[in-house]
């Protein structure tokens, strides 16, 4: 079967004869062939990409999120403290 070869810029580079290649009838099976080619190319990848963990990143050491934020709606007075309110 003759396959067309293309360059990376999209221009045609010629034809290539492939021996023992199954013949596709009227375009049937072209999607399956494409999926096989993509799977083979994906399996050739090295696949060792990773990201750094939080402990591996150089930083300031400052906490990212505070544990607790205290918001007072009204100022605390001695009356509130005598009633058992926690500030």
Query: What strand order characterises the main sheet?
Result: 1-2
Q: What global shape is seen? A: elongated
Mean of residue pLDDT?
78
Q: Give the helix/strand class.
A: alpha+beta
Order of helices and strands: EEHH
Specify the biggest β-sheet.
2 strands, antiparallel
Helix content: 10-25%
Give the DSSP E fraction (strand runs of 2 or more residues).
5-15%
- Provide the gyration radius in Å: 33 Å
List the uncertain runs: none
Q: How many alpha or pi helices?
A: 2
The total beta strand count reads: 2
Query: N- to C-terminal separation?
Result: 83 Å
Describe the protein in words.
This protein has 2 helices and 2 strands; from the N terminus they run ββαα. It has a two-stranded antiparallel ribbon with strand order 1-2. Helices cover 22% and strands 13% of the residues. It has a domain at 2-43. A hairpin with a 5-residue loop joins strand 1 (2-6) and strand 2. The longest helix is centred in the middle third of the chain and has 14 residues, at 30-43. It has helices at 30-43, 78-82; strands spanning 2-6, 12-17. The mean pLDDT is 78. By secondary structure, it is an alpha+beta fold.
List keywords for this structure.
single chain, 87 residues, alpha+beta, two-stranded antiparallel ribbon
Concise synopsis of the structure shown:
This protein has two helices and two strands; from the N terminus they run E-E-H-H. It has helices at residues 30-43, 78-82; strands at residues 2-6, 12-17. A two-stranded antiparallel ribbon has the order 1-2.
